[in-house]
Amino acid sequence: MLRPLSPTLFDLPSMVQDKYRTCQTMCFCGLLPGIRRAWASIDNSLFLWRYDKSGDVPVEYCGEEQAICAVGLVRPRPGVFLEAIRHIIVLCTTTEPLPMYTVPSDNVIMTSVATTAAGRIFLGGADGHLYELQYNAADSWGRKRCQKVRLTGRLQQLLPSFLPSMFGLGAASAVHKVVVDDERHILYVLSQPHATIQVFDLGHEGTDPAKKVSELSDFYQAAASATGGRDTFRNPASDKKAAAIKHITPIARSESSKLHLLVVTADGRRVYFTTRYMRSAYFSQYAQPGATGQATGGDGRTTKLLLSSRNHTLPLAALNVGTMGGSTPGLREMLTELDNFVPGEACAIASSPQPSALGPEVQTAGAQEELIAQLFLPASRYVLISTAGVVELEKRRPIDILVRVLEERHPNRVRQFFEAYGAPEAAAMCINIASSRPGTYPVDAVREAIAALEEPALVGEPRMPEDALLGGLAGDVGGVRASAANGGLAGGGIYMGQAVNPNPEPNWSSAHRGLCLYLTRLLAPVWDMHITTSAASTKAKGADAGSSVLHCSFSARTMAALIERLHCLDMFLTDFINRRQQQGYSARYSPKQGSSISFGGGYAPSAGGLFGPAYQEEMQNGGMAVAQQAAKRQRLNHAAQLEDERTSRTRALAAKNLRDLVYDSDGETVAAKLISVLITQQLDNAATSAGGAATALGGAVSGVEEVAAMLQKNCPSYFKEDDRAFYQASAKLKAAETAPNASARAALVSDALATLSRVPLACNLEYLVSQLAYLRCYEGIVDVPLRAAAAADPIGAALRPEAAGAHEEAKQRRRAAYQHIFSTLRMLVSGEGNPGAAAGSGPDAQKGLTSQERASFKSALLKAAFKSGDVFFLECLYDAMIAMGDATTLLSSDPPHLERFLAEHSGLATATGFGSSVVYLPNNGAPVGPLNRRQVQLAELLAKFHIGKRRFQEAASVYAALASRRSGPGESAVGLEERVSALQAAVLQAKSVGNSGLVDKLEADARLMSYQAQVAQRLEARRSLLGPESEEEASELGRQASDLATGLRDVSELYNDYAQPYKMWDVCLQLIDFAGSAVDAALVRQLWDHALLAAADHPESAIMGDSTSQQPSMLSPPLGRGIGAGLTARMSAVAALVERLGSQFFPHEASFPATHVAFRMEQVAAGLWPTAHAAATTAADGYKGDAMARAMLGACHNSLPAALRVYELLLARRAPGVPEAELAQVRLKVSLLRSLAHLCRAAQAEVVSALVAPGLATADGLALATGMGQGRAAGPQAALTLAHREAGNLADACERYALEARRLGDAEAEELAGVFDAVKAAAR
């Protein structure tokens, strides 16, 4: 198990022996394996010498007069000493300080020195206290260059150093040993003779002040109370001396996660402690014993070695090594008594650190289990110094034991090894041996390892589960088969058969599982490491200062070691598989003859061994491979700095580890991008070289060939022959940038495109499109990505919706290729960025494009794109252009399949697949939708497309479909205003067609939809006025308003379910006018009465609905003043309602009974109606304004004869539906005459205008003035004649009105008669 590295023991140097003979005070010796030195202190002299070289002359240091009592080695804290100083030696004397960094010992003899990885120094004193030696670069305020701080003693720390010894306050037990657990940052102090163990916490990082957290004062009692302790520690009275503690040492995490400290007694018993301390919660830390065992010691003249370790790393019982085991959970201890005897009495033993094959950035293999560490670390070495000399020992690893067993060629011992370690574990070690570099292991061992991997008796055979059942290989399977043959299970049960796995996996052989285990351990140190690390850029300046770049996390040594192992394994597996294929499948079940390991047959490798001459030659050139890998790592470092989108990509790359690079779907993409940047750099360097285009072309091609050859050799999984062709074409494109003339450039580009068309999937489209954009190769920008998209979807699944899941996946792959075309187009449309600037290296690379150049570039690019026969690409292109806001260009270009795209994606058409004709959904069919905002946008573009084609009827049908579409949640909701707007647009397009029937239908729908919108607005307004107590009513109103928004309703439904129940009288009248059917005149008059009453009672809300623009009134300003704000407000509200509704209905008497409406208005003005106001109103209180005349004139579309005719019928008491008795009232007649006076004055103005300028005044206006005109005059003279005739008619009418006024005998009537006389005089 242990073997000495030298055949003889290295004696202590003669200088040391001579000095020892004259020793007067004390002498000590020990080991400093960190610097490969042994040391001995004799009195005041310190000797250091190499323990691995015989005859090495020691270095002697003689200090002051006092003897040296302790020695330690520490790596200093950074920044204190010169960088060249890697270690410092700590010397402790009894009293006097030594030179350089010194501090007085205060009469305390230091008995132990312990150092930490952080550079801290702890001293254990004979006074029982723990000290820390603190050192700094120089003295400063509040901090000395070197000082000694006592960590124990509490109150004694406040007293002068000489007082505790004078008054006997010193500690009873001297410190015997101080040890540090650098993994857990815990410090242990052992004090003798009372065997006290103190525990100190150094904080999470090991830099906090030491804090005492626990103390074990009765070791024997604690050990006896532990698991298994009563049998080992039975008699405390007689066992105290033998149970004295001789040694304490921390237990590495790799050995146990629960046990932390090992204590060894004088007679070899071992006690394991665990420490449980929650730093964040400040719980007390305590020590708890664990497993114990027993062993015998030496005889005083020689030293016998005992090895304690975890059981799976120990040699086998078959190797004549005795073992004893403990059973405590947490550490499966195996104790081995070794056959090695060292002369003299042992003084110290220490492990010698071994260099790892991996770099320092990787987790140290020595901190792992030995089965894992043996892949990267050589055998562990230990140095022992005794009174006779120094010897260096090497502990055999499990793989070393296997090599020894294989060299013996003993079948039983090989089988025992496989049984002891398990077949997969042993097979993994055989693979390690068989795939090792030549010279690492003996050739015989390599040959036998290969034979063992092919021996079914050792590693088994891969079989399917049903084969295992037939062969009866497993005991449980055989048992099931035997029971089934007997008709049932053991014990009389009924055999119900075996469950069938529809996707069975083979029962892999142990060789296969061993290979997986070997690969797992080989890659474990770097598997979860980030492949890059961030570092501040030293070249960043200005705004870029402080930016970070990425560097490869793996050192050249790590990469070289792993690549060498993987390369060796690849060659071994290739040879192994080839030989197995040559042997045939049946050979797997037929053992071969001739193997030195015979299990009834076996396999003997050829005389040439596993590795042929080519491999031997290649491995001899390993230094070159390492250099190539180092160069690759440097290029990859630089490649990360050249990412086009630095921020997002560096963050994504920085988060990647090796596992992601291998397993994630985008791992290959990341690797391809790194390779792309690497070769792009090579191309840029070649293109910028002097010597012209030919030199640039040659340099680019040769540089790419060199890098491509290296990449294809070292990473074939990521760099294939197609990649090589792509980068050769890229080199030609790079050379074309500096071509001397257009013909040379065109030839290079054409040649490159021909190559790229053969390997579209290998193209780095992002960089390639940028190159082609710089070269203004519009066809190439479109052609290469389209070829890549087609190659990514070879079966055309993107064009076949019936392909289900494959259809969507194929569409995504195609879109990824199309995006590179769209990104170029996006820069041209937005004006942001310069296509080709990222790849171009010529003088115009960073020069921006003018608006004219951008327009020309975009036009040429779209022309090339529209030529494509890829329908899915065209649809994606149209979608992208619409998203860019460039729909105008799209419509004006009239590209192929645009109508199909707009119709299908807007939801207004259906198609059975690509190539079928578009079928528009008819407007009178089922409504489409719901449609989202994008679909609505596409539908509107479809309508504009038809308008551009002068297909107005199709455009009208699109708008009609939008108006009638179903409403949905969220962005699919449709407002009634939006429906009205769509219908109005449809009406406009239908009028362009000249289809009167379609126009009438669409206009009717638009009008009815506007009424429906008005109802919905009224419901919402009413709901908003309700309080919390009317929650149910508010909910019902909201529901009804939402229902109205879903689509067009029937006119009867609007009237019966909404307008009439909710007393929307004006809407009821509008719906009656819209219906146009025969309606009872009494009902219409009643509705008008309700509407006028509502306006009079609520004048503040009388004017509702959409306002309509009215022509300016021809009436003069009011003749008199109103009686008050109340009547004036009511009159204004009534007049406004009449003017608004009358103008909509005139001249339809069925919906606008003008005489009845005028009658009610005059009643309101006279204070006779409503009845509630009549009793409180006198004649003097009546309304004296012209609101009634203005309202009637506006309702009659400013037609004076129509308005005069209404009032003449009322004055003559011939108005239909108006009671004659009410018309006979004097107050009402006065009000009627007042309105007539206003109308006559308006007619007078028209007549005067016609007489003054007969050519300008309209004859129609004159005829309208009196209602007696005969039409438009043919010329100015005829117009003048007509004006004179109409003036006479007006005078006659005013004479009649004046006579009627005087007949009333009322003062106001007499005043109105005067007005009529004045008008008559003016007319004549």
From TrEMBL:
Bilayer-crossing regions: none
Organism superkingdom: Eukaryota
- Give the record's keywords alphabetically: Nucleus, Transport
Nucleoporin Nup133/Nup155-like N-terminal domain: residues covered: 11-96, 101-275
- Ranges for domain Nucleoporin Nup133/Nup155-like C-terminal come to 509-1165
Reply yes or no: does the keyword Nucleus apply.
yes
Report any Pfam family annotated for this entry.
Nucleoporin_C
Report the locations given in the UniProt record: Nucleus
List, alphabetically, the InterPro entries matched.
Nucleoporin_Nup133/Nup155_C, Nucleoporin_Nup133/Nup155_N, Nucleoporin_Nup155, Nucleoporin_Nup155_C_1, Nucleoporin_Nup155_C_2, Nucleoporin_Nup155_C_3
Q: Which PANTHER family match?
A: NUCLEAR PORE COMPLEX PROTEIN NUP155
UniProt similarity note: Belongs to the non-repetitive/WGA-negative nucleoporin family.
Spell out the protein name for this chain. Answer: Nucleoporin-domain-containing protein
Cite the source lineage. Eukaryota, Viridiplantae, Chlorophyta, core chlorophytes, Chlorophyceae
